[in-house]
């Protein structure tokens, strides 16, 4: 700022400073992430300025969160606000620091100055004087670290030769007290009208009877003749008394160009506590040398990059991380990776669909942990774990949500420890845990147990109803039966992952049997199968009499990471697919991918099976079976009609489900033909690997 | 125990109790896991007994860690120990609780009794009287929870009609004081000789001149005639005075069967403070009814299942978990899953090769975390992280070793936080962390930086030398160059994992170029390629001027889980392969899998590439290139000859490596033929996805 005594000859101006509030960069980050992506076209922004009303707010052009064109009405919100007169600006944000440094600052400044010159020449500046003060920001926003580097310019014409200052004095000294009173009143009216309050350039006309009026610039011609004093007023943002503020520079250029005046009386309007203050306001007389060859084509030189200590451009930088709530910061950081995916890789990714989805994880073991961790990565926040087990000492090295401490003293419940860990990893998570065993068919119970088992059935049903997606991640086949049935009944997305010793299987269940009659043509559209659709035996007790190494945990380490990651990626594709749960199964090997070509994330298969033995992986397709013990219409109808008595029969009578669905008959017929049915009870039966036969 | 007054007619015996020490089950767990696996054949064990020497140790047959046949010499270690006279036993451990309950206890007891009867009939019992006292344990060992259920039997014949007791008195009352003195001295000698100290059945012969001698049973005939008193002595484990101890039962059966005696004088030998105690010792007279039809075929009935309160068999159980050091418990639990894999799935798995391997992880980001977690699961304990970054707020949801807390206040160094977390997950881990950046080619440095960059090169080289395996998990291509070179130079196993947006690549590097001249025929054996073998450009600065979304973290969540799991499974196969780093690359699609058919874990490919877009995955094979900028003989020789000056040139001069390896010439030639070289700098360049072209 120029505070030294000016020479009588040269008129100097107090330069503007930029005051970029954190909210500006905060909002810009959102805009960049959510809408702009890699698009680095300049965007129109709005700065805010006003007459100086306090030394502490002096001389600033402010940028706030309202400066950005977030919505269509954003420019309207600031209109009519007396302390936030809009100043049009432009923001050049680059995608890399290298591009930022390579920007041609002189050209950019010149381009903005040209706009002002054009508006002066066209007369637009008379209609809307706000365009006389433009500004320009160049920036590099590092959204990963919340740090922002930027430079601001306030383009101003460098008149050649420069204007000189004849005199400058407080307005109260210039006007007679009667005039001053009238000027004050007129200014007050101007500032109080929402039509004029943010019009920063105006005429002050004082008639010979000391009556003052404030007029629009475009009324200059009309003001000629009948006035005693005619001053060019403007909102001076600066509280200093030695020089007028920066807006006068382009104002003089307008005045000289438009009206060819050599002597200009100007009025630096300032306020105090919201009222015109003629002691603070200044009146000055400037002499302008007319340039004969001036035209629309010969734009005066311009200056205006913000300087520090009047010397050189200083790269400004701000890091929001220090001032932000750490949890909000973390949430933003986590969103970042997802939003960056939209920039180039998957522009159509619907992130909101992920944020809001509620996932129920049945099983918080090796698979449950991996599924939860991948859900975290995909931005999913609502996760409910169901598990009745406690953290055993062998768990933490394979179950990535637990630590040694969780396993000592008998172990914390997994459903409790998993919730605690998710909050530790990311405090914005909304996890919950339910310690509960899943009732299983073919595991007979005593009559005393009936009430509690049925209560568990009810609880599971309620949980499934209140979630959008159910992951089946338990360690037995039979514990997946009831959830499979309930998902088919409630038409919820079910994703199933299961491990063999060195192989894995991930599948999504089709829609429930009753979903089709509503909105789809049943004959045209076959449902996708569920986990039990290709079984010829009903699920029953598979746990009794298994040796240690036949239990589920004897798998190659790492299998669960693969299966868990695939399961979540499969879910994400379902959620992003227009048909959702009804999406047909794509097959990578078939050239005709059906109606799913438009899925932004690639194909959406029904099943994925792979093995770390030969590192193979393939997608498979299996349709729903009419004899399925979990998802067939027969079973669902029976469940709906008979409720608890159906459940108890399925739990207590191993053959009930087979009888109900006709599997018993099917098996008899098959045996009579002497087919080689796979025996589910052979020694090599690996529950999770072998029980999902597939029809291609 | 029978403490009531016995009827004069029936001789009752104080039953033995089992005292199974924790060490027994501890050692058995190891034996089961490491050697037996699912083999549930009965195994020979040894119990320990001795004459009662203190009421508190009375009447016990002890089982300790020495009871198991761990090594060939285990039965020898206890031989000659006066307080641990070996008793032969047998252990039936079942693999499931159901099998345990189904065991036919009567038959098992009978089988052991038959052995004793056979030894009596064959005369073996005279040569080695220890076989008169056998025992039997049936158990179910739940190795997951360290709980053990078991029942012990001490088979004893039920003579019909039973023997009757004429009198029973302290030995000091029975012998004259002179005789007693001599008997004491003779017993002391017997007990002090390592040849006889653990022979629990013997003859006490007292001549008419009151001189006593202790003789072997087999000398019974020789003792006839010259003795005044001849008693059947045995180590009585019981301190009670009303009845003789359990060993006398089978002893009487032997005596009756062998020598057809009706009146038997027996001597219950007991000690006090290590010396014979004739006040404590008992002498009794038993009457045995001879059975005329007795033969080898007509075995007497047997009893002997351990009873509690003389009433019923009580299933004993012990849980070691409560008394074990939690960290040791955790370590055992973790081993369990691996050892269980050996039982059935991969009997040839060499777990020790995994325990001892030292892994260097270059990069502790998304991939580094997943690799470390999978290594944990595979039992690998020595992990060193190299990373110069700090935990950012966006990291914890994707980098599974970090929490929110690690990211606040600027973030902990990843190499530090990862080490801390591994210890929290599993205290037996031996992780370490190095905060260091990896010098990169084509990233010129100033002369002031040279010393520190060269020190980093040296440090990296030392780290690679001191580890067995190097994982390349950094987020740029060029940071993998120096480690690739150093691994080729030191002939270390290098495993490389890299992510694209929705695709992943995992590969192992071949052996170094200098390894072949030594032990293999160079013309016959081509080396496998490294990460840079198929590039036609040298690695150079790829980080400058990349937009946020072009950086490595913009990948589908879950990709790193898959790639990390595959990378570790690939390593495990290399470690288990007889040729290790020199193993050829298998291909799943080729029917001829070369010399790797015997790999217990399936095929061992060179590269695996996959995508979550179409859920495909395949294995690939690429040979080493003579023009490779990282592993070719040209480059390795140059590095060995020129050392630091070579490194500086590679770092500072982007074209140096291409000139050196002839890539420059190759490119010129190619350009002159107007081939469509893939441009590494196109917009769609995805570093991690595209730069590993593969020759099939």
TrEMBL record, chains A, B:
Coiled coil: none annotated. The keyword Methyltransferase does not apply. Residues 583-603, 675-696 are annotated as: Disordered. It holds the Pfam family ATG7_N. Residues 341-578 form the THIF-type NAD/FAD binding fold domain. InterPro entries: Atg7, Atg7_N, Atg7_N_1, Atg7_N_2, ThiF/MoeB/HesA, ThiF_NAD_FAD-bd, Ubiquitin-activating_enz. Keywords: Autophagy, Cytoplasm, Protein transport, Transport, Ubl conjugation pathway. Homodimer. Belongs to the ATG7 family. E1-like activating enzyme involved in the 2 ubiquitin-like systems required for autophagy. This is Ubiquitin-like modifier-activating enzyme ATG7. It comes from Camelina sativa (False flax). The lineage of its organism: Eukaryota, Viridiplantae, Streptophyta, Embryophyta, Tracheophyta. The gene is LOC104771861.
């Amino acid at each position: 700022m120029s505070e030294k005594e000016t020479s009588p000859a040269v008129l100097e101006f107090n330069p503007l400073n930029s005051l970029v509030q954190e909210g500006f960069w905060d909002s810009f980050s959102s805009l960049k992430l959510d809408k702009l992506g890699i698009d680095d076209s300049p965007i129109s922004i709005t700065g805010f300025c006003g007459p100086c009303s306090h030394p502490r707010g002096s001389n600033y052009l402010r940028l706030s969160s309202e400066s950005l064109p977030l919505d269509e009405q954003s420019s309207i919100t600031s209109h009519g606000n007396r302390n936030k007169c809009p100043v049009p600006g432009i923001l050049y944000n680059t995608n890399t620091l290298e591009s930022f440094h390579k920007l041609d600052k002189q050209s950019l400044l010149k381009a903005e100055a040209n706009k002002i010159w054009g508006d002066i020449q066209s007369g637009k500046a008379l209609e809307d004087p706000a365009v006389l003060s433009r500004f320009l920001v160049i920036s590099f926003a590092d959204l990963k670290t919340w740090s922002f580097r930027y430079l601001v310019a306030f383009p101003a014409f460098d008149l050649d030769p420069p204007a000189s200052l004849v005199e400058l004095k407080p307005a109260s000294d210039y006007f007679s007290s009667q005039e001053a009173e009238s000027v004050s009143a007129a200014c007050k009216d101007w500032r109080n009208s929402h039509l004029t309050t943010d019009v920063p350039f105006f005429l002050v006309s004082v008639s010979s009877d000391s009556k003052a009026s404030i007029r629009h610039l475009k009324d200059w011609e009309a003001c000629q003749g009948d006035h005693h004093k005619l001053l060019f007023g403007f909102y001076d943002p600066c509280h200093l008394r030695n020089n007028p503020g920066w807006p006068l520079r382009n104002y003089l250029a307008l005045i000289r160009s438009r009206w060819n005046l050599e002597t200009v009386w100007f009025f630096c309007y300032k306020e105090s506590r919201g009222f015109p203050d003629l002691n603070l306001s200044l009146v000055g007389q400037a002499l302008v040398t007319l340039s004969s060859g001036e035209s629309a084509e010969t734009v005066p030189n311009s200056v205006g990059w913000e300087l520090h200590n009047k010397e050189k451009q200083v790269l400004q930088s701000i890091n929001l991380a220090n001032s932000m709530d750490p949890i909000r910061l973390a949430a933003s950081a986590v969103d970042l990776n997802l939003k960056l995916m939209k920039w180039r890789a998957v522009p159509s990714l619907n992130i909101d669909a992920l944020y809001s989805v509620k996932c129920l994880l049945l099983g918080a073991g090796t698979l449950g942990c991996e599924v939860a961790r991948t859900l975290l990565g995909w931005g999913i926040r609502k996760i409910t774990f169901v598990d009745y087990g406690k953290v055993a000492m062998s768990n933490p090295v394979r179950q990535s949500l637990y630590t040694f401490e969780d396993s000592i003293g008998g172990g914390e419940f997994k459903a409790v420890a998993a919730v605690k860990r998710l909050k530790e990893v990311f405090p914005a998570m909304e996890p919950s845990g339910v310690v509960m065993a899943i009732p299983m068919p073919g595991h007979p119970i005593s009559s005393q147990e009936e009430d509690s088992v049925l209560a568990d059935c009810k609880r599971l049903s309620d949980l499934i109803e209140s979630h959008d997606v159910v992951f089946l991640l338990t360690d037995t086949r039979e514990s997946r039966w009831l959830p499979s049935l309930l998902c088919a009944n409630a038409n919820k997305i079910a994703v199933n992952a299961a491990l063999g010793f060195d192989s894995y299987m991930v599948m999504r269940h089709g829609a429930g049997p009753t979903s089709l009659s509503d909105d789809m043509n049943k004959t045209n559209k076959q449902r996708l199968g569920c986990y039990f659709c290709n079984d010829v035996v009903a699920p029953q007790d598979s746990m009794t009499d298994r040796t240690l190494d036949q239990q589920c945990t004897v798998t190659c380490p790492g299998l669960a990471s693969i299966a868990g990651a695939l399961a979540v990626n499969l879910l994400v594709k379902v959620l992003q697919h227009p048909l959702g749960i009804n999406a047909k199964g794509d097959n990578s090997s078939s050239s005709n991918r059906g109606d799913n070509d438009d899925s932004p994330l690639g194909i959406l298969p029904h099943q994925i099976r792979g093995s770390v033995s030969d590192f193979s992986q393939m997608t498979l397709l299996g349709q729903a079976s009419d004899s399925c013990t979990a998802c067939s219409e027969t079973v669902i109808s029976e469940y709906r009609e008979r409720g608890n008595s159906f459940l108890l029969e399925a739990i207590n009578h191993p053959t009930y489900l087979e009888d109900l669905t006709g599997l018993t008959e099917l098996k008899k017929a098959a045996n009579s033909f002497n087919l080689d049915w796979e025996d589910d009870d052979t020694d090599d039966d690996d529950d999770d690997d072998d029980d999902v036969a597939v029809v291609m």
